[in-house]
Design the sequence.
């Protein structure tokens, strides 16, 4: 009897599955898909062992100014005064614990994804010589901001045509000590910041349809004296954070979708050349900043668990599943499937892993976007959290 009943069950199950699948397939064939995903081949993620061994060190961080700011993505210091840009388009100064808005590049209303293009979204922020601030606004471009007066000056507008394309998603920047050159990333010329998840899932390197090989440019250089913008690197997949080396001979560029960091030489014998700095990282790298020990801090808001199941790796070779997902579900819904996990790694100057701080499930530190070191503390920026986290490096 049991063989018969299991056969009946199997037939019933298959009939039911087929009756659901056929109309679902019909629907998904007819529906439009917002993205045109390309297969990406990632290597098997590195094992989380040794210095990458999971821990809960990030949970020792304290949350500061909770619910008083939203999405402080990138953080800098001038002395002990902290500056950051927030999701409601503001550039904020925090002095003696007091929060003050010093500038806005866009204008209100703010608060919804629809408002973002007019509201503006300050992302990367840096201090130049004479304590001036340089800010990359995802929608408006590169700006110089006077932290004393709040006066803003546009350096490169996103409306500027570069190789026949407008900049669509200005992301991060790094500045030479003399303030002469700014290296910055434009993450896509197809997707805006509010659709960053589409950009990750699409995985293409042809956001810029121009007559260049690969059809795309991403790492750019702005000369503050000649006011010229130069294209340095093309064909990157979602370039995000950038950091000049201490000797200012190369720039590191995070290639988020590919979980790797590229190096572009800006001076010396290798000038104009590029190579791989770190390949096959344990998560998707966001911003990168100098560490006091001569290396680099890299923040990751999504990991590729190994051992474990990595959704991003699973989907990378299967564009058809991505198409179906995005035909049926919104970007917000799909992001909920990506497990919350914050990871910060310190790299040596040659790109080897020195140490790692984890917060599995993002209990204390969620959606980490940047780790900025100042006076023995690591300040952790976030794309979405309503606070800044601070980790005492002596206590980890």
Sequence:
């Amino acid at each position: 009897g049991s063989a018969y009943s299991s056969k009946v069950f199997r037939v019933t199950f298959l009939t039911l599955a087929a009756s659901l699948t056929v109309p679902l397939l019909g629907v998904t064939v007819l529906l439009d898909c917002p993205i045109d995903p390309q297969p990406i081949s990632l290597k098997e993620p590195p094992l989380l062992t040794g210095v990458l061994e999971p821990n809960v060190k990030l949970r020792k961080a304290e949350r500061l100014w909770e619910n008083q700011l939203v999405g402080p993505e990138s953080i800098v210091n001038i002395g002990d005064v902290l500056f950051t840009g927030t999701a409601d388009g503001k550039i904020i100064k925090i002095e003696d614990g007091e929060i003050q808005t010093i500038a806005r590049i866009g204008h209100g209303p703010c608060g919804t994804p629809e408002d973002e293009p007019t509201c503006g979204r300050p992302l990367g922020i840096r201090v130049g010589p004479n304590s001036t601030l340089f800010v990359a606004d995802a929608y408006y471009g590169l700006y110089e901001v006077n932290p004393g007066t709040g006066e803003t000056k546009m350096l490169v507008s996103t409306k500027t045509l570069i190789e026949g394309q407008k900049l669509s998603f200005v992301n991060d920047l790094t500045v030479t000590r003399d303030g002469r050159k700014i290296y910055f990333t434009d993450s896509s010329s197809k997707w805006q910041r509010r659709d960053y998840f589409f950009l990750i899932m699409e995985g293409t390197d042809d956001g810029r349809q121009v007559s260049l090989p690969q059809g795309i440019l991403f790492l750019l250089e702005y000369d503050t004296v000649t006011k010229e913008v130069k294209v340095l690197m093309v064909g990157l997949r979602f370039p995000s954070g950038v950091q000049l080396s201490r000797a200012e001979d190369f720039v590191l560029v995070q290639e988020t979708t590919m979980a790797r960091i590229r190096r572009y030489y800006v001076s010396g014998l290798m000038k104009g050349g590029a190579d791989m700095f770190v390949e096959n990282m344990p998560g998707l790298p966001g911003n990168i900043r100098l560490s006091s020990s001569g290396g680099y801090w890299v923040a990751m808001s999504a990991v590729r668990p190994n051992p474990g199941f990595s959704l991003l790796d699973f989907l990378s070779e299967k564009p058809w599943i991505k198409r179906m997902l995005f035909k049926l579900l919104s970007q917000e819904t799909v992001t909920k499937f990506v497990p919350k996990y914050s990871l910060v790694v310190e790299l040596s100057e040659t790109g080897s892993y020195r140490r790692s701080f984890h917060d599995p499930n993002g209990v204390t530190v969620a959606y980490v976007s940047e780790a900025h070191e100042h006076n023995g503390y690591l300040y952790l920026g976030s794309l979405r959290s309503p606070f800044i986290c601070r980790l005492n490096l002596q206590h980890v």
Notes: The domain at 1-11+39-392 is CATH 2.120.10.30 (Neuraminidase). The CA atoms of residues 158 and 167 lie 5 Å apart.
